[in-house]
Amino acid sequence: MDTLLSSDRSTVEIAQDLLGCVLQKETHSGLVAGWIVDVEAYLGVEDLASHSYGGKRTPRLRAQYSPPGTIYIYQMRGHLLLNIVTGDTQTPQGVMIRAIQPKTGLALINQRRHPITGVDQVNGPGKLTQALGITTED
Prior knowledge:
Pfam families: Pur_DNA_glyco. Helix content is 17%, strand content 31%.
């Protein structure tokens, strides 16, 4: 991950290179893993879609101003979303992981996402975190 997140690489490059990587989460219930198939890059203070647009700094955004590789989990419309910080501590950029293709732990995904089946279990950022068992404590 260190090479992927090196400081000489743009957030867009990192987002592209995350596609096909395996994302996994182990909980007391078991391991779920999958290939990353959808991401979205957020380009910081100049990106209207970014929480840090305009240089905004709040306690909620503290993780965005953390070193590259920091996991930034936040809640939107009742769903948790997973982001990886890609900028340095003065450049709040990151990549949202939006979807995976399951590789391991399908029974656990089925349990967590029941009665939803197939690709609809993991084809959105909130669905993904629920399938992986990600919580705000992670």
